[in-house]
Known about the structure:
Two copies of one chain form a homodimer.
Chain A: E1 2-3, E2 10-15, H1 22-28, E3 34-39, H2 41-57, E4 61-66, H3 76-88, E5 96-101, H4 103-115, E6 121-126, H5 129-135, E7 140-145, E8 148-155, E9 160-164, H6 173-189, H7 193-205, H8 214-229, H9 236-239, H10 245-254, H11 262-280, H12 289-298, H13 309-318, E10 328-334, E11 337-342, H14 346-362
Amino acid sequence: MRLDLGARSYDIHIGKGLLDHLGHQCKDAGLAGKAALVSSPPVNDLYGKTAHRSLQEAGLDVHTFLLPDGEAAKSLSQVETLVSGFADAGMERTDVVIALGGGTIGDTAGFAAATYLRGVSLVQVPTTLLAQVDSAIGGKTGVNLEQGKNLVGAIWQPRFVLCDTDLLSSLPIRDVASGLAEVIKYGLISDPSIIDELAASLQSVLSTPPAVDARLVSRCVQIKSDIVSGDEREGDSRRVLNFGHTFGHALETVTDYGRFLHGEAVALGMMVAMEVSTKVAGIADEDLDPARSLLKQTFPKLSYPYVEFQRLSEAMTRDKKVAEGKSVWVLLQAVGQPVCTEVSSPDVVEGAFEAAKERWASE
Amino acid sequence: MRLDLGARSYDIHIGKGLLDHLGHQCKDAGLAGKAALVSSPPVNDLYGKTAHRSLQEAGLDVHTFLLPDGEAAKSLSQVETLVSGFADAGMERTDVVIALGGGTIGDTAGFAAATYLRGVSLVQVPTTLLAQVDSAIGGKTGVNLEQGKNLVGAIWQPRFVLCDTDLLSSLPIRDVASGLAEVIKYGLISDPSIIDELAASLQSVLSTPPAVDARLVSRCVQIKSDIVSGDEREGDSRRVLNFGHTFGHALETVTDYGRFLHGEAVALGMMVAMEVSTKVAGIADEDLDPARSLLKQTFPKLSYPYVEFQRLSEAMTRDKKVAEGKSVWVLLQAVGQPVCTEVSSPDVVEGAFEAAKERWASE
């Protein structure tokens, strides 16, 4: 699969057992010299050796760098540690950074690659479902500030992305479910058949070990690629990818990023965005039932936090997608037909929040 | 004057008294909302009020941010302070960062603009000769690591550049001379008549207050613009701008950036690059005499540091322009005709260093 961005176009390889071919793919992409292999301790324990061996066999000089697990990786001081390490290893402009891990690794290592020597080559090897279908695709990189998430970063496209679906088999069910929230999002904003098919296979996807079909990943990646290639720097068309995220980010913020995985917050955020859609975008309530039911099955134990709407509302105005003080929501006119709409009335949002909470508790 | 980079093309305004029109130019460029005015305490004392008033009169909501003076500004922790300040001020994607100052302000504020919310609009208002003819043009931004200068950064083009040559009248002579090193560089790599004309007007340029002709600035900016528009990301053609810089950076590194202004190090570096050129690139020794004599007149009190060649050589291999371990020099085949050449023999460089030292001391 190819993401078309003119001179910055690149391939996305999706399939089983691809990690063994990482070095080979680097060579094919013209990458040689030093490779900074960036991962976290748990990911490195599972897949570091395989990646290292593959890169070494392809003639690359591999240097391993470990970031802390989770959001702790996403700080400017971690980026500084990383790029200082690149400098100590004598990395040059022609060398490559390999991000092996979930979204936090891809975001942080990607930003380091975007800025070290004003930009070196980057390869994304996402190891979570969320990263494979979403964060590793499209070039967004960045870290957090105290004031908010992803406030510093760069758009930096990788040379290629390698999605080895075998790596997903080691994921805890909770992480798989978190990734499925984004899968369901693609169904809602682009291809309703994803929702039906996922509903039919949900049990095996959420079993141990999880069985995620490479075709499902491919379909999601295709949707994201098509959107990103039409809009690299987030104008209106890329913005539809944020369906459920405005409210989801607010939920993450008010719970200090400690309670929800990203996909969990997005799932609850999509429930709210669907309610707003019925109020403002004209979609019939029952058209959303299959997606609601699928979300509930995917996240049976999830619940909204006890928090005042006012705090969520404040967190939303902090969101960097706010343009000129206005809150623009991605809504659904129909399943598969998103629309960007300014929602000026806080009452509509508060009402949708209450309705979503009630519905979620009763499903 | 316009720097042609497709969708990222922008205007460079050069002339006297332009700072009064900063706000107006912002408005013309479609910039509105919040403006982060970034400068250093001394620059802010001189020009902050004028810039602030002009922006405010044009309807912008101005927030002032001060970075430390000099290289101390160029760190990731200063960038973090700056972007945190942007977040605290509620700056959004549609807002603008105005870099008012010399190269260090432009580099640091520029990098903050490149990365805050993955990139917001930037306006460069260079206040030194060096920044007006060189660092503010072309989109290079970045900060230093302990391991070296400009090791982290981004290519981020401004929305426009405003070079008010009146601002140069407050510069100390030493800073004017430092900027002239880059002017002389443009003569050597592109337009030999710059050298003759500068030689004729040097006395008034280096008087108090310094009288720098806007036309001289324009000619230099034109040369840099032409080169950058052909090569935004430093392939071979942009690399000619580094004439004298390989050795110059090494001189700055081994003296811990405490002894030389950038232009001073570049002047001494160009003396070495000229010697290497006579050995390797076939230029006749006497063709370089006008430039050498002009450099000596511009920097009458400057001298090479007492330092072993080995340390300079090591610093050069650290330089980020090193590609695959090879040291590529910009040399002159003739005055105005640069060529990029790999110089593999350290003896040639050492010989050139000794010859340049001797010549400089005896001129």
